[in-house]
Amino acid sequence: MILALCFGLLAASCASRPIVGTKGVASLNEAGTAGSAVEAQPVMASPPRRANFGGEDKSPDARRVADWVLDLGDNRGLPFAIVDKTDAKVFVFCADGELLGAAPALLGLARGDDTAAGIGERQLSEIPPKDRTTPAGRFLASLGHNYHGKDILWVDYDNAISLHRVVTNNPKERRLQRLATPTPLDNRISFGCINVPEHFYNDIVRPTFTGTYGVVYVLPETRPHGEVFTSYYDVE
Predict the structure, then answer these.
(1) Residue 236 domain-assigned (yes or no)
(2) Which class for 223: exposed (0-12), middle (13-18), buried (19 or more C-beta within 10 A)?
(3) Which letter does DSSP use for residue 201 in this model?
(4) What percent of the chain stands above pLDDT 70?
(5) What are the CB-based long-range contacts (under 8 Å, 24+) for 123-130?
(6) Inside any domain, residue 234
(7) Most exposed of 69, 90, 216, 230 (fewest Cβ within 10 Å)?
(8) DSSP code of 231?
(9) Residue 152 to residue 201: CA distance in whole angstroms
(10) Do 123 and 69 share a domain, yes or no?
(11) Closest CA to 163 of 182, 124, 135
């Protein structure tokens, strides 16, 4: 009788314990048979996508925005460009975030991230120095032509802001020399448009945006990134 009682207690004890296997956990149901249970699988977060600058020098801001564009997919599968006004530099990427080329740039004479009202309808001679800004923001860009028939990349068509070959009509402005200096301090000279070296426009910009739209991100210099790019986040 004592032996039978011991076996009964052992059976009761086992009935309350789970049966552990190599692929999951099962427990005994009321009928005494093993019931199935779903194995808990760890959720692996995908690593953030990063833009590839290669060995090109870039500012922390340019890297952060390019990473955000790629990680979020904000370029919507289109080629894109980053215009870093602080460093006076342009980076052009293919849709998957591989750098195609980079070059110095000339930018609007005045610091600022906003566009003066109605500036796109004014003659250049009517634009005072304080209004000659390169606006910050996200722009859907496409190739087109200016009033002289030269091909350009329209960045903000309504406000007459474009990215184009450096203008050398006025020798006193020394635009080629300004592009060649190692500092961005003398790169503020234009009415707002983005001037780049001719070879960079011909070899990188024009082929990249031919037959397609693209996105141009002009980094702010007086406002926070999150204020200009509303869905911006630090990928890190």
Answers:
(1) no
(2) middle
(3) I
(4) 81
(5) 124/191, 127/191, 127/192
(6) no
(7) 230
(8) T
(9) 9
(10) yes
(11) 135
Do 110 and 167 have their domain in common? yes
Half-sphere exposure of 129 (CA within 13 A, CB side): 3
Section 142-168 average pLDDT: 95
pTM score: 0.80
Segments forming the whole domain that contains residue 12: 2-35
Same domain, 9 and 101: no
Q: What is the pLDDT of residue 85?
A: 98
pLDDT for 70-106, tens place per residue? Answer: 999 999 999 999 999 999 999 999 999 999 999 999 9
State how far the Cα of 117 lies from the Cα of 129, in Å rounded to an integer.
Answer: 14
CA 25 to chain centre: 45
Number of domains the chain contains: 2
Whether residues 10 and 71 share a domain: the answer is no
CA–CA separation, 132 and 214 (whole Å): 24
Is 40 a member of any domain? no
The two tokens of residue 211 are 């037959």
CA–CA separation, 105 and 179 (whole Å)? 6
| Tokens at 109, concatenated | 């004479």
| pLDDT tens digit sequence for 6-46 | 444 444 444 443 333 333 333 334 444 444 455 666 666 78
The one-letter code for the residue type at 167 is V
